[in-house]
Amino acid sequence: MPDPVELEVFKNLYHSIAEEMGAALRRTSFSPNIKERRDYSCAVFDSAGQVIAMGDHMPVHLGSMPMSVAAAVEQCAFEPGDMVMLNDPFRGGTHLPDITLVMPVFVWSGSPRLPVSAARTSSPTSTPDFYVASRAHHADVGGTYPGSMGPCREIFQEGLRIPPVKIMRAGKTVADVLAILLNNVRTPEEREGDLGAQMAACQTGAQRLREICDRYGIARAKKAAASLLLYSEEIMRAFLRTIPPGRYQAEDFLDDDGVDNKPVRIAVTINVKASSATRKAARRSVAHEQTSPAQVSIDFTGSDPQVQGAINAVEAITYSACFYVFRCLLRDDVPATSGLMRPIRVIAPSGTVVNAKPPAAVAGGNVETSQRIVDVLLKALAQAIPDRIPAAAAGTMNNLTIGGIDLRLEDSSPGEPFAYYETIAGGMGARPTKDGVSGVHTHMTNSLNTPAEALEYAYPIRLRQYSLRPGSGGSGRHTGGDGIVREIEVLTDAQVTLLADRRSRGPYGLAGGADGAPGRTVITRRDGSVETIPGKTSVRLQSGERVRIESPGGGGWGRLDI
Question: Is residue 222 included in any domain, yes or no?
Answer without folding.
Answer: yes
